């Protein structure tokens, strides 16, 4: 086991630590997409990818972080109190 915890990447999730990475996609123009993967997955299989075409890495990163925060099945850090 390696024990290098990435600086600044702590999100307070418990069970599975999902990480966000940014993917650059070449189309008619260069766009960026956010991808989520499990930190402990040695293959870093993608668990989610955003469907937008972000023009900057920063926007894609914000999108990915927003998705992480909005995951209804995120365990631990958030109580599920939504009335739906
Ligand atoms: Zn997005």
Brief rundown of the structure:
With about 80 residues, the protein is α+β, with helices and mostly antiparallel strands. It has one helix at about 55-70; strands at about 20-25, 30-40, 45-50. It is about 15% helix and about 25% strand.
What can you see in these coordinates?
The structure is a single chain. This protein has 84 residues and is α+β, with helices and mostly antiparallel strands. It has a domain at 18-70. Helix content is 17%, strand content 26%. The protein has one helix and three strands; from the N terminus they run βββα. The longest helix is centred in the C-terminal third of the chain and has 14 residues, at 57-70. The radius of gyration is 14 Å and the shape is globular. The N and C termini lie far apart (40 Å). It binds zinc ion. Zinc ion (ZN) binds next to helix 1.
Keywords for this entry:
single chain; 84 residues; alpha+beta; three-stranded antiparallel β-sheet; 1 helix; 17% helix; 26% strand; binds zinc ion
Task: For the record, give the distance between the C-alpha atoms at the N and C termini, rounded to a whole number.
Answer: 40 Å
How many whole angstroms does the radius of gyration measure? 14 Å
Going across the major beta sheet, what is the strand order? 1-2-3
The major sheet is characterized as: 3 strands, antiparallel
Q: What amount of the residues lies in strands?
A: 25-35%
Shape: globular
Question: What compounds sit in this structure?
Answer: zinc ion
Oligomerization state: single chain
Total number of β-strand segments? 3
Structural class: alpha+beta
Low-confidence stretches: 76-80
Query: Which percent range fits the helix content?
Result: 10-25%
On the 0-100 scale, what is the average pLDDT?
80
N to C succession of SSEs: EEEH
DSSP helical segment count: 1
């Amino acid at each position: 086991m390696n024990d290098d915890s990435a600086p600044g990447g702590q999100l307070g999730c418990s069970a599975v630590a999902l990480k966000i990475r940014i993917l650059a996609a070449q189309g008619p123009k260069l766009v960026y997409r956010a991808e989520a993967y499990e930190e402990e997955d040695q293959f870093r299989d993608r668990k989610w990818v955003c469907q937008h075409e972000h023009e900057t890495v920063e926007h894609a990163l914000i999108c990915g972080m927003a998705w992480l925060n909005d995951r209804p099945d995120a365990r631990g850090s958030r109580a599920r109190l939504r009335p739906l």
